[in-house]
Amino acid sequence: MGRLKLWASIFLILAVCVAGVWALWNFELRWRPKTITRHQAEISALLQASGWVSGGGKGAKLYVLAPHACAGCDGLRADLLPGLRDRGVDTRVIALAPVDANGQAQSTPAERATVAQLWIARDRGLLDRWEKAPAAGWTAPGVPAADGDMGRTAIVESGRQVVARLTPLLKDNGVRFAYPILVWWNGKGEMRACACQAPQTWRFVRREVGG
């Protein structure tokens, strides 16, 4: 009987430890952003040279790479970015048009037109309208078409090339590329990044850039 109690106690302790480790991973570790320790200069140069549009803040810089539609994009624009902007965070949005797949366009003409215009004009008003509009209903009113315009089409392609170059650089730092990608610097000056689709990741962003 004593031996049975001993084994039962050991099993209970192990079960508690396993549950604790699982809870730590499930509620904390799996959502933590990665610290970028490799290719920092190249990543920073790619971001700075892109056609980002600032939200107007003068504080910490947060780069956001996203197409109009992606998992987590609507929540990010509705719940995370407005609060950060209110705190003075410089949200630098890099609008992108997804690359074609199997000969099929993964973006709409309106999306491509808007991406080109945002890169050219860095128009905060256009960005606001773009972020608030449902992707399926966006018609890019008043925005010049990119299709048929070699210059604007080249700008759309430039954004895709930025993604192509960033993907392996981020992967080397443990960040799997999936929209939206967020890159920022924390209070220690460390470059940080995440594929921030899940709202569980946003608390880290708020903590590190939003005060």
CATH topology of the largest domain: Glutaredoxin
How are the strands of the biggest sheet laid out side by side?
Answer: 1-6-5-3-4-2
Number of domains: 2
What is the structural class? alpha+beta
CATH architectural grouping of the largest domain:
3-Layer(aba) Sandwich
CATH class of the largest domain: Alpha Beta
CATH superfamily of the largest domain, called what?
Glutaredoxin
The residue-averaged pLDDT reads: 88
Order of helices and strands: HEHEEHEHHHEEH
Strand percent estimate: 5-15%
Share in helix: 40-55%
Overall 3D shape:
globular
| Poorly predicted spans | 15-29
Head-to-tail CA distance between termini? 57 Å
Rg, Cα atoms, Å:
21 Å
Number of helices: 7
Task: Walk me through the topology.
Layout: H1 2-27, E1 34-36, H2 40-49, E2 53-54, E3 61-66, H3 73-86, E4 90-95, H4 109-121, H5 124-132, H6 150-171, E5 181-185, E6 191-195, H7 202-209
Parallel strand pairs: 3-4
Antiparallel strand pairs: 1-6, 2-4, 3-5, 5-6
Protein traits:
single chain; 211 residues; alpha+beta; Glutaredoxin; 2 domains; 6-stranded mixed β-sheet; 7 helices; 6 strands
Characterise this structure.
Helices cover 48% and strands 13% of the residues. Helix 2 runs antiparallel to helix 6 and helix 4 packs across helix 6 (150-171). With 211 residues, it is α+β, with helices and mostly antiparallel strands. Strand 3, helix 3 and strand 4 (90-95) form a beta-alpha-beta unit. It has helices at 2-27, 40-49, 73-86, 109-121, 124-132, 150-171, 202-209; strands spanning 34-36, 53-54, 61-66, 90-95, 181-185, 191-195. 33% of the residues are buried. The chain folds into two domains: 1-31; 33-209, Glutaredoxin, CATH 3.40.30. Strands 1-6-5-3-4-2 form a six-stranded mixed beta sheet. It contains seven helices and six strands, in the order H-E-H-E-E-H-E-H-H-H-E-E-H. The longest helix has 26 residues, at 2-27.
